[in-house]
Amino acid sequence: MIYHRKPNWMIKENLVTDETLLLNRRKLLAGMGIGAGAAALGLGAEAATPEAPFTPMPGLNSNFEDAGRGITAESITSKYNNFYEFGSSKRIAAEAQKLSTDDWVVEIDGMVNKPFQIGIEDLLKRTGVEERIYRHRCVEAWSMVVPWIGFPMAKLIDLAQPMSGAKYIRFETFMDTKVAKEQKVRWYPWPYVEGFTMAEATNDLAFMVVGAYGKVLHKQFGAPLRVHMPWKFGFKSIKSIVKVTFTDERPVGFWENLIALEYGFWANVNPAVDHPRWSQATEKPLDSDGRIPTHIFNGYGEHVAHLYEGMDDLGDRLWR
Ligand code: MTE
C-alpha cells in the first residue's frame, strides 16, 4: 500500500525542531541494510539492560518517517509520563525503575487455536522490529512525537492464530503490588486493561512497542512491551503487557471501567467532541509553549477513517 507521507494538514514552522538531522541519521542507518531480525537479536542480547541501545539500529519504516512536526526530545517525554501503577503524577520515572523486566513472558489465550506463553526475545525473533515516528495525543490535551521501535500488531495476531469467531483483542498489564504501590489503591480497577476490534488491531498503524529513541524501552514508557495506537487517545496505548486475550466480548478498559462517561471504548481522537474536563479542539505539544489544532484521528484519517464508516452519530461514536 502506498501512503502519502505528508499529512494533509500543516503546523506552524516554528514548532518544527531540528528533525532533518535526526532523519538523515536514521535514513543512513536504514540504508545500511540493517535487518529487523538482526535488530531483534541485538535486543535479545541487551534485554536485561533497559535503555540499552539497539545494536544494530532497526530500519526506519519510510511510510511512517514524517510525523509532520519534529520529534519531541527524549529528555522531555521520558520525564512526563502516565503510568498510574507507579503514581498519579507525571513524575513516575524513578518509581517505575522498580519494575523488573527480566525474563518477561507474555501469555496468549482466549479464542486461539492453542494458548501459549512466549518470552520477549523469542517474540522478537518471530516478528522482527522496525522504527516508526508517531504522533501521540493524550485526552488531557498534551501531545508529543516519538520514534518508537516495535512491530505491527498484525504480526502478533498472525503468531497467535485466533479463531474466526474472535472479534476483539484484549491486553492486560502486569499486577504486582510489591513493585507498583498504586496497585494497592482499591478503587482503581487493576490490572490496567485495554482492547480493540480485530479490524483496528490488524490495521497497519497498530504497533507493538519495545523501544524508543533507538534504545530498549524506558521502564516509564511501559517496558518491555506496550501498544501504540496513534489515532486514539493515549490511554488506549497500554503499557507493560503480560497477557493478550482474543475474545468475542468487547473488553472494558481500565478508564472506561472507572468512569464510563468520560472514557469510552473507541476513544478516537476527535476535536469536535470534548471530554467533560478538557476541550479537545487544540493540544499543547510538550516541547512548545503554544497550542496547535487537533485533527480528527490525530491526522491519521487516511489510514483508519474507513474502520468507522457507517457509524451514524459520528462525533459521539468516535468518542465513546
Ligand atoms: N498503561 C498502563 N498500564 N498504565 C497507565 O497508567 N496510561 C495511559 C497509557 N498506558 C497508562 C498506560 C495514558 S493515560 C497515556 S497518555 C499513555 O500511556 C502515556 O504514555 P507515555 O507515558 O509513554 O507518554
Descriptive report:
With 320 residues, the protein is α+β, with helices and mostly antiparallel strands. It has one domain: Sulfite Oxidase, Chain A, domain 2, CATH 3.90.420. Helix content is 21%, strand content 20%. It contains ten helices and twelve strands. Strands 3, 4, 7, 8, 9, 11 and 12 form a seven-stranded mixed sheet that branches. Strands 2-1-10-5-6 form a five-stranded mixed sheet. α2 (36-46) runs antiparallel to α5 (120-127). The radius of gyration is 18 Å and the shape is globular. Residues 81-85, 138, 173, 192, 221-222, 234-235, 237-240 line the site of ligand MTE. Ligand MTE is lined by residues 81-85, 138, 173, 192, 221-222, 234-235, 237-240.
What brief labels describe this structure?
single chain; 320 residues; alpha+beta; Sulfite Oxidase, Chain A, domain 2; seven-stranded mixed β-sheet; five-stranded mixed β-sheet; 10 helices; 12 strands; 21% helix; globular; disordered N terminus; binds ligand MTE
